[in-house]
Amino acid sequence: MSTPRYPGAGTVTEGAVHSLLPVGRAPGDARILWVHAHPDDESIATGGSITHYARAGAANVLLTMTRGERGEVIPEPLRHLEVGQPGCPDTDGTALGLYRVGELDDAAAALGLTDRFFAGEAPAVDESVGFANGLGRYLDSGMSWGDNGRAQPAEDVSPAALTSATEDETAAHVAAAIRAVRPHAVVTYCDDGGYGHPDHVRTHHATLLGITQAMTPAHGAPAWDVPLVWGTEGESDPADQRQQAVINGHPGAKRAAMAAHATQIVLPGHEPGTFELSNGVPQALTATEHYRLLRGELFGGGPA
After folding, report:
1. What pLDDT, in 10s, does the model give residues 170-201?
2. Most buried among 55, 171, 298, 301, by the most CB within 10 A?
3. CA angle 123, 30, 44 (to 5 degrees)
């Protein structure tokens, strides 16, 4: 296996905008839905932007698709929560997932989120579709590192995992959340999931399909057509012609949110501009975050 490879610092392209909202939509009158795969993704990938809009008065709502049950635990005193480690009380990561819910609550407070919920929790649940796995929620699919340094599927994926469900099922729960929140912008991953994590890629597809499904009313909830949909930008590609947005967020608040996810993230005190995950590969910690437009007309007003 080669060294894990994460996207480098983004490049600002000519014509980049500095807003994720439709033209004419003031932050104080805006709702933004952030759709992520695991606890900590919201802070690592979009924490600067969430705090930027929170301080500007926007309603920031977070939908997280799993509880991160397959994460590798860094602190030695908590290592027993990791699946496969001595003393782990389960084989599916339930105990770790419950612990990470508490971490996410602390991160949400640091970010200034208005609301947050998991897939399977109201309003991110379509009761008519349900969960084929019988759990009423999705488990983290896990991952492994390929020879190219990119994330790839794990060798043992649970039948209850996010990637084991059909895209129609996962999208239905995203659509239910969209009809309830009625966001002016939805933010998720680009199609590569940032660095290839299978749950990130599935979340991207489920979100885009859910946005389409939400354009049809269901179960008494009116339809909602999301004006703008953005994906977190991975590797910079000069050939990418999609509209770019660059948000300059608040480093201190983002760092505090990341620090809340202590099972997953190390923030070296001697290098405040970096962080590490369990593999120990240093990554840049920046509150300037880059996005590409996945759907919508940038200069269209969209529904109110």
Report:
1. 999 999 999 999 999 999 999 888 877 999 99
2. 171
3. 70
